[in-house]
Amino acid sequence: MKLYQRLMPLYDAGEARAIVRLVLEEHFHLSLADILCGKVNELSRDDINELNEIMKRLETGEPVQYVLGEASFLGRTFEVNSAVLIPRPETEELCRWIISDQAEKTQGSPAPRVLDIGTGSGCIAVSLALGIPGSRVSAWDVSTAALDVARSNASRLSANVSFECRDALTLHAVDETWNVIVSNPPYVTESEKNGMATNVLNYEPTTALFVPDDNALLFYRAIARYAFSTLVHGGHLYFEINSAFGRQTCDMLSSEGFSDVRLRKDEAGLPRMISCLRP
After folding, report:
1. What residue ranges in the chain does DSSP mark as E strands?
2. If 187 and its partner were Cys, which of 59, 226, 242, 274 is the partner (CB 3.0–4.6 Å)?
3. Cβ contact 236:181 at 8 Å
4. C-alpha distances out from residue 73 to 28, 76, 92, 199, 271, Å
5. Angle 45-59/13-26 helices, nearest 10 degrees?
6. What confidence tens digit (pLDDT) does each residue in 75-117 have?
7. How far is CA 5 from CA 1, 12, 30, 58, in A?
8. Apex 238 CA angle, 185 and 79, nearest 5
9. Residue 129, C-beta contacts closer than 8 angstroms, at least 6 positions apart
10. Quick one: pLDDT band at residue 207, thresholds 50, 70, 90?
């Protein structure tokens, strides 16, 4: 049996092949040409045993990023484990949007103070610290295990980010102001679980994913209220959102006093990002 066929009960043939190729390229340093030429059969006995253990984990539905311990994000490699969400392509799009906006806004201005709320792996905070020259970036999360991962990523990628353990639902303005606040908070409603892949449900941290059906904007509202009291005038708030609640999220931000509320679609055509201004 070919390696990818072992994953066919969980994935279609194309995705199964892509997962196996990622393992062989990233972990065993085999090129596509090597794979096509059958170099897998020339691996050492130790490597064969290790590959078999990796395949066993993949056969349970464990995401390949957790098995390998890393994920690609904006051309960089981030450490990931089950304490943090696996970075998604739409989050890359959100970072590009912020970096582009700030490149236009900060020319000739002081370097912006940026806050990432619910940082997880730190992929947003690290990417913004490296992508916005001179920026002063802070990142918060309620999970100490997630913060350990984020700190490791910032250190390994030489990004200057300050980390702190704080709960997004109990934020109070102290003596702090920001030019940019960004968050990719929990936004999947409990009723949406039935339509989700088992490898997400069984392995990714539920506290970073789910909100009650009757309070889908729980985190967005709390963060928006904190942002309104701490953003400088003209400061930006950015969210990654549940595409099913785009209009409701925009209406909530307008009701909280924000202006220039912009809803943006991702590459798949789904409304997944919002930007707004503190007047």
Report:
1. 70-73, 76-79, 113-117, 136-141, 161-165, 178-183, 188-189, 210-211, 231-240, 259-265, 271-277
2. 242
3. yes
4. 21, 5, 7, 20, 21
5. 140
6. 999 999 999 999 999 999 999 999 999 987 756 677 899 999 9
7. 7, 9, 19, 12
8. 55
9. 114, 135, 137, 154, 159, 160, 161
10. confident
CA angle 64-69-71, nearest 5°? 70
Phi, psi of 138 (to 5 degrees): -120, 150
Bridge-based pairing of strands 271-277 and 259-265 is antiparallel
191 phi, psi to nearest 5 deg: -70, -15
Locate 256 and state its tokens.
């909280």
Please answer whether residues 236 and 180 qualify as being in contact, where contact means their C-beta atoms are separated by less than 8 angstroms.
yes
Residue 200 has a pLDDT of 78
* Residue 172, Ramachandran bin (φ over 0: left; ψ between -120 and 50: alpha; else beta): beta
Phi, psi of 214 (to 5 degrees): -90, 5
Tell me the HSE value of 136 on the side-chain side, using a 13 A CA sphere: 8
Structure tokens, 188: 């999947």
- Paired residues of 136 in beta bridges: 113
CA atoms within 13 A on the CB side of 81: 10
- Cβ–Cβ contacts within 10 Å for residue 130, how many? 19
Report the predicted TM-score, pTM, of the whole model to 2 decimal places.
0.93
